Amino acid sequence: MSIQYKSIAELKKMLNNNEISNAELIKETFSLVKSNAEINAFITLNDEESINKANKLDDCPSSGSLAGIPIAQKDLFCTKDLKTTCGSNMLSNFIPPYSATVVKNLENAGCISIGKTNMDEFAMGSSNETSFYGKVQNPWGKNLVPGGSSGGAAAAVAAGIVPAASGTDTGGSIRQPASLCGVTGIKPTYGRISRWGMIAFASSLDQAGPIARTAEDCATLLNEMCSHDEKDTTSLNEDIPDFTENLNSPINGLKIGIVKEFDLSKLDNEVVKVFEESKKHYESLGAEFIEISLPNISLSVPTYYVVAPAECSSNLSRFDGVKFGKRCESPKNLEELYIKTRSEGFGDEVKRRILIGSYVLSAGFYDAYYKKAQQVRRLIKNDFDSAFKSVDIIMSPTTRGPAFEVGSKGDDPIQMYLEDLFTIPANLAGLPAMSIPNGIIDNKPIGLQLIGNFLDESRLLQAAHNFQISTDWHLKTPRGIKS
Ligand code: GLN
């Protein structure tokens, strides 16, 4: 029986019923990676170690909740003794001496990290076109972008190569590619998952999370990924519930907020139609819709594009040719070492962000840009706090439309930045948010975004699971993928 497109829950059953051995599962996974190499979802494969681990599991079964399950790790998580590039030339030779906490958590639960997925350079992008290791193909169409920055992760799941992948979401990088590739992804509350060993982009926004086929699998993964970690000072020390516990509880009476300020009339009719149909479906499940106002929400994208570049310019100053990764050839002096290494090591989008960040943090402009952005960020958070007094979750489309063509937004960074119009607010407010497939337009999938209150991932997952057990959008698969 093929393992392609199987969920974690299904693979666990196959393993438990001895329909497949651990070694067979991993070998088949690598054969899917190879037959679909043109998708370019992976930067580095971890084949030898994965097969050894699977053989060991066959000899000596483990009781870990995810024992033997193949997982692809975004190439932004440090993996001990396995190259970690963050999609950049700068780290093309970087082999970390330790693994990120979240990688360790997953591996302790028995997951096998089969390789590192392609991504936008340093997680900056919405189309996976900025990777030093080449573009990723959306499995739904050769000329379509998979979204970004976790494009390789979403594509690997959408092509049915792996049941799940780790991703990170600073402004939408789990939800936007999940939407464009027709898979499910969740960014939990900021601080739920340790950032230790995650290569930093914008530390006050970065949050890891899973991309999988179903909300149920996302819940299973979150159970293992979340932990309090003393090595990350922003890690939350809060109870971690069993995220699978309430999945099947009905959602009648659930109050869903619709944001007045998200002007859907500017979107294509088809996109609006898909959204309205999902609303009707939720109504049939007993949910109730309430219009809410987030008065400062239109300032989210400009606020993000001050805060994120500011933090990135500071975080990326460590890549100087001395401490990590690449070093230029024969510099004349220390200054030239810095300049040449950084000029050669970073791509255009990363340089653009560093320049913007340095500018908004500079003494003359700090108050006008950075400080102002932080103040607006607080107003946006306050807007959400008042909205959640009257609703349980908030719903919107995840993206403005389905996947766009490769190269179609390349010349205009602003158009690319607007891709994250609906996803950025949850990062600014630190709230959990997810995307689930809810329609297909011209043979391209699209997603529905659910935003939850602080620490309320369980309710999001419950709402998503209720949708998925009564619809089949998450079960649709792209045509033409090799088996
Ligand atoms: N697309 C956004 C950006 O380029 C968000 C990226 C992310 O979430 N990592 O900044």
Describe this structure in words.
With 483 residues, this protein is an alpha/beta fold. The chain has one domain (1-483): Amidase signature (AS) domain (Amidase signature (AS) enzymes), CATH 3.90.1300. Helices cover 36% and strands 13% of the residues. The chain is built from 15 helices and 11 strands. The chain has helices spanning 8-16, 22-35, 47-59, 101-108, 151-158, 175-181, 215-225, 269-284, 300-315, 334-345, 348-361, 366-387, 413-418, 424-429, 457-468, and strands at residues 42-45, 70-74, 112-117, 164-168, 184-187, 208-212, 255-259, 288-292, 393-397, 433-441, 444-452. It has an 11-stranded mixed sheet, with helices on both faces. Strand 2, helix 4 and strand 3 form a beta-alpha-beta unit. Helix 7 packs antiparallel against helix 15 and helix 9 crosses helix 11 (348-361). The longest helix has 22 residues, at 366-387. It is globular and about 65 Å long. The protein starts with 7 loop residues before the first helix and ends in a 15-residue tail after the last helix. The mean pLDDT is 97.
- Going across the major beta sheet, what is the strand order? 1-3-2-4-6-5-10-11-9-7-8
CATH architecture term: Alpha-Beta Complex
Q: Count the beta strands.
A: 11
* Overall outline: globular
The fourth-level CATH homologous superfamily is Amidase signature (AS) domain
Low-confidence segments, given as residue ranges, are: none
H/E element sequence: HHEHEHEHEHEEHEHEHHHHEHHEEH
Rg, rounded, reads: 21 Å
Overall pLDDT level: 97
Top-tier CATH class: Alpha Beta
Bound molecules: glutamine
- If helices are DSSP runs of H or I spanning 4 or more residues, what is the number of helices? 15
Distance between the termini: 12 Å
Biggest sheet descriptor: 11 strands, mixed
In terms of quaternary structure, the protein is: single chain
How many structural domains does the protein architecture include? 1
- Beta-strand content bin: 5-15%
Classify the helix fraction into a percent range: 25-40%
Structural class estimated from helices and strands: alpha/beta
